[in-house]
UniProtKB/TrEMBL annotation:
UniProt protein name: Glycine betaine/L-proline transport system permease protein ProW
Residue stretches spanning the membrane: 72-91, 158-179, 207-225, 291-312, 319-336, 342-365, 377-398, 465-485, 491-514
Origin organism lineage: Bacteria, Pseudomonadati, Pseudomonadota, Alphaproteobacteria, Rhodobacterales
Keyword Cell membrane appears in the UniProt entry: yes
Keyword set includes Metal-binding: no
Keywords: Cell membrane, Membrane, Transmembrane, Transmembrane helix, Transport
Family per record: Belongs to the binding-protein-dependent transport system permease family.
Example GO molecular function: amine transmembrane transporter activity
Domain of life assignment: Bacteria
Amino acid sequence: MTDATTELKVTAASDIEVDREALDRSIHEFAGPNGDYYVNAFHKIHDATSPIPNTFNLWAAVLGPFWSASRAIWGMFWTFLILEIIAWVQIGRGAWGNPGADLAERAARQQERANELLARAADATEKADIDRFNKLAANIQKAADSSLEKAQLAQSEALGIMVTGLLMLLVFKLVQGFYADRVYEKQYSNWRINPDNTESGRSTRNTVLGAVLIAAIGPLIVYKFTVNASLPLLDAFPEKQVSEMILGPDQGTLFSVVASWMEARIDAAAAAGGDIFDGIVAGVRSVLDGLTVALIGSPWPVVMLVICVTAWRAAGPRVAIFTAASLAYIALLGYWDVAMETVALVGAAVLLCVTFGIPLGIWFGKSKRAYRAAEPVLDLMQTLPAFVYLIPIIAFFGTGNPPGILATIIFGMPPVIRLTALGMRGVPESIKEAAVAFGASKWQLLKDVEIPLALPSIMTGVNQTILMCLSMVVIISLIGGGGLGKEILEALQYAAKGPGLLGGFAILFLAMVMDRIVQGAFRREDEKI
């Protein structure tokens, strides 16, 4: 029995030794140069029971960000590059900078002004003027003396500033030395899990890149913040000189040339496609007029009743009660007509977004090539500030509600396209293969399998489109759009806080009602499940 136990212990120790040798080889392979040091350091980190660092990497402390770059630890590189630059700026301000330069310049300007007033007092003939100039000169002289005193005090603190910078640099170096091995050990763990996407060893390319970044960033920032009068080239981009190099002398700036060229092209395109743009505006106006007649032309009790019943059927009694209360708030404060105009604007925009967005989303969900081609356009539509694309909207389509709807479509269509494509891509392939095996055609597969399974994602996209279109109602009022956005714009123009807040709450309630109605049916199904 004793021999068997001894044999098991020997076998276990042998297995542990083999595993340790394999781990050492892995660390050597990962670390490359100076692998023995990292083998010992990583074992110390693994065996440690305290969070306090128990290793110190001298090269990481001495070289700082340069070491981090050579080992591809870029997060540590950027963090300590910034911190060390801050420390060097303090050292430079104390060593060769002039901390009180600004105050000294202010004192010189104030002294010059005081001398000017004293000269005017000497030239004055009336006693009242002499007293006034002398008093002003005395006050400014007192301010100049105070500024000069502060400048001298700041200059006397130069040594303290330099010592502070040196202490900061020392602390940052020590922190890098104590934590470098721990950070590198985490990178080693990531490398073992995913070696293809984690850099290892000491790369010459990373070393050179780190050296270039340090040399390009550090000296320029230290110079800029420590020298009293830095090079003008560092303070402002020489756009006039660059424009002359590109365009030649006396040809204007690059901005004016490009802006004039773009304006001419837009005007030419608007003139050439006037009939097409007028047709688009007419189509949008027809949709808007139909919704406006239904919401504003119909008796208000009918409209309110239809909306409340729709909320009841879609989302239940609680949402219906909230909808009724929101509509009552809107009506009692006199916002009924403008609120219904807002609903018509949003409804027309959402209807057009859904009409074109869902088919595009289905196409993009089935074709990766088409989605990759359209993705930059969708990013542009969603990230470009709304005020920017209002300019071409005005140029091509004019002002008023229909152009405002077109601007809203640009901003609101990407969510429904993206989420429809996401839902289509999320349909399991096994289900589609089963439907095809049972004889489903492409149309049946789309209508009976893919769209129903993707419907939750599609409806989420519709909901996001509604909310994003509603967020545009204030912006489109800038180009003549009506509705609640016009009320908010007027409140902003006249700093009318009360009307602005009341109109904002009306928009909020409209958004909440639309959101609850659109998502209500799906939430009720989830509750049943």
